[in-house]
Structures are given as structure tokens and as C-alpha cells.
């Protein structure tokens, strides 16, 4: 039974990574109105949403393993950060409903909620999962020093992107979003 549990969290990490790798590159570009009008918005974000949900499942399953106290503490925090990321991605996906409102200049409650959640949740996810990644590496229970930089670079870039782009209007920081793929690669390697 222990082997089955071990395999399940690993499978969730790998499935999560594959979904993030499939959804991320499909993200439309352009202005917010152009992105919301693009037919790729819903499929791309649905893949990301399911990817983060699979990651959450993997973390919950990983919590059944015997962990040192430091890793267990950071796992709990990473679960909270991942829950916030799932909630944000649900609003992110649903923001498409505000396209007509955005174009007409009307209120955009779902889109606005998504943007504010992104400013808060992406950094929290990056910080909590990064802490878990480091604790797991230091306790020698997850990943290794050889791959840690991939996960950390992806988490830092993805965590900084929304505050820079949305809050500070640094358009050049959009380049940080695709670096989440480095984190996805870490998930695959850690899962293996």
C-alpha cells in the first residue's frame, strides 16, 4: 500500500507538469480584450487549472509519507499556497465572461478579481512551494540540489510576473510567465 501511495503523488506531480506544459504555451497574447476574445483562453487556462489541481492532489498524497518536521511544515504551507493558486486559476479561466464588459467599459468583476488574486496568490504560491522545495531538498526527501534551481527559477519568475505586469505595468515582465515551464520540468524530475 505504501508503494501505491508513493506512486500516486509522483503520478500527480508528473500529470500536473504535463498539463502546465500543455496549457502555458497556449496562452494568448495581446491586450486584455484580445486575450479574452481568443478561443484559446478557455482551453489554455482549463489545462492550467487542472494542472494545479493535480499538483494539489499530489501534495496531499505526499503528506501521507513520513517527513521530517521542517519538510512537513513547508508542505502544509505549500498546500495552502497551491489552494490559493487553484482558486486564482479558476477566476483566471472564468475571466473570459467579462470580455464584453471590458470592451464596453462596464464593470469587470470576475476579471478584476482574477487580476487582484494573481497579484497576491502567485507570489504566495511561489514562496510557499519554493520553501517546500528547499526544505525537501535539504532534508533529502524530495528532489535534489541538481534540479532545485529549475523549480526555484520557475517559481520566482512566475511569482514576480503578476505584481510586475498588473500592479506596476512593466510590460517587459510578461516574459516571466512562461518560465513556469522550468517549475514543470522540476515536477517531472522530482516525480521520477
Largest sheet: none
SS summary, helix count: 8
Mean of pLDDT:
96
Please count the beta strands (DSSP E, at least 2 residues each): 0
Query: How many domains, in number, for the residues?
Result: 1
SSE string: HHHHHHHH
Portion in helices: over 70%
Summarize the structure.
The protein has 192 residues and is mainly α. It is built from 8 helices and no strands.
Verbal overview:
By secondary structure, the protein is mostly helical. The protein has one domain. The protein is built from eight helices and no strands. The protein has helices spanning 2-23, 32-37, 41-62, 69-94, 99-104, 109-138, 145-167, 180-191. The longest helix is centred in the middle third of the chain and has 30 residues, at 109-138.
Name its key features.
mainly alpha; elongated; 192 residues
Amino acid at each position: 500500500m505504501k508503494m501505491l501511495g508513493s506512486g500516486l503523488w509522483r503520478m500527480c506531480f508528473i500529470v500536473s507538469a504535463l498539463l502546465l506544459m500543455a496549457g502555458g504555451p497556449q496562452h494568448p497574447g495581446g491586450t486584455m480584450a484580445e486575450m479574452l476574445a481568443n478561443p484559446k483562453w478557455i482551453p489554455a487556462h482549463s489545462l492550467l487549472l487542472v494542472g494545479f489541481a493535480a499538483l494539489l492532489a499530489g501534495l496531499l498524497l505526499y503528506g501521507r509519507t513520513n517527513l521530517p518536521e521542517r519538510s512537513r511544515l513547508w508542505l502544509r504551507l505549500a498546500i495552502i499556497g497551491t489552494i490559493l493558486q487553484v482558486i486564482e486559476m479558476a477566476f483566471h479561466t472564468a475571466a473570459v465572461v467579462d470580455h464584453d464588459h471590458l470592451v464596453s467599459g462596464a464593470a469587470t468583476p470576475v476579471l478584476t478579481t482574477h487580476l487582484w488574486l494573481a497579484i497576491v496568490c502567485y507570489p504566495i504560491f511561489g514562496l510557499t512551494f519554493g520553501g517546500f522545495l528547499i526544505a525537501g531538498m535539504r532534508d533529502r526527501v524530495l528532489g535534489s540540489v541538481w534540479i532545485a534551481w529549475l523549480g526555484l527559477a520557475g517559481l520566482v519568475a512566475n511569482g514576480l510576473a503578476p505584481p510586475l505586469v498588473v500592479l506596476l505595468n512593466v510590460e517587459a515582465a510578461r516574459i516571466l510567465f512562461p518560465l513556469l515551464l522550468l517549475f514543470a520540468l522540476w515536477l517531472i524530475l522530482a516525480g521520477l
